[in-house]
Amino acid sequence: MQGIVGACKVALTQAKACSIQTGFLMRIGVDLGGTKIEGILLNDDGSIAEKIRIDTPTQKYQATLDSVCTVVQRLQSQASPRLTVGIGTPGALALPCELMKNCNSICLNGQALKKDLESALGYTIRMENDANCFALSEAHYGAGADAHVVFGVILGTGTGGGIVVNKQLLKGPNSITGEWGHNAIPVSVRSLIAEDRLCYCGRSNCIETVLSGRGLKQTYFEKTGEQLEATGIAELAASGNPHAQDCLQLYYQLLARCLATVINLLDPDIIVLGGGLSNIRDLYSAVPKYLPEFVFTDVIRTKIVPPSFGDASGARGAACLWPSM
Ligand SMILES: [Zn+2]
Known about the structure:
By secondary structure, the chain is α/β, with parallel strands linked by helices. The chain has helices at 2-21, 61-76, 113-121, 130-141, 208-211, 213-224, 230-238, 242-266, 283-290, 313-319; strands spanning 26-32, 36-43, 48-55, 85-89, 92-94, 99-101, 126-129, 149-155, 159-165, 168-169, 270-274, 303-305.
């Protein structure tokens, strides 16, 4: 009898191991970034079984396409049957033709990236922009795992956002849900910057022009006449430099004012900040102090928190574009 029980246990263990190896509990996620392409095999519990990272070809569409296919095929080769594939990209798919738009990696704009990848791979994939993938990742496995409504924000090379409600990505007819970075900054804070800032999208004073890394760099230049990258400004402020500290205080004020518009509209349970500037630790204590002036409530319960996964969120969120099986 013990032998039978033991044999069953072994069989169950083998079946479980087999189901992982054969892919029923894994999904592929790929983050197509401006400098790196990262692909992962994501286990159902949120752990990563395998990771591949390669350089993104510089501004060459066909080479970029080939590189993404290579990453997917290398990951697929480690599992059978075929796994679901989600891709995170800059920009968005413009309906109805699903051509890429709004990408800061401009070689992708106007290209049928999703269809071209599906033709090359021979099966259907899912694709969303990187901010949406970040929000999904944090809502499923990260800082927003217990939240009903999650607003995920990227503060990096660009400024984007994604909204997840009950673990589902909120999507609309224009494929621009959460594209908060291209709203204009509120008029009340226009006087905090020296001059109008032209955005790559063609408009002036988009939120991205003040809250991206480049935006912070421009603010520092306006105040000091010196060119310094965002990380350098943060380091200088941490070492006690008053000009850098003033510059960051202004950044916190602008961020609070711009997030207040989101809170008044969406009232998310949690706002998860990602991208390089989310590493500035003082953000999480300073920004909430500025919020009450702008948010239409007496007590603000919205949490503003750092990400659980940082740069690793893109590929993880892309995998979450498909349900786990
Ligand atoms: Zn813009």
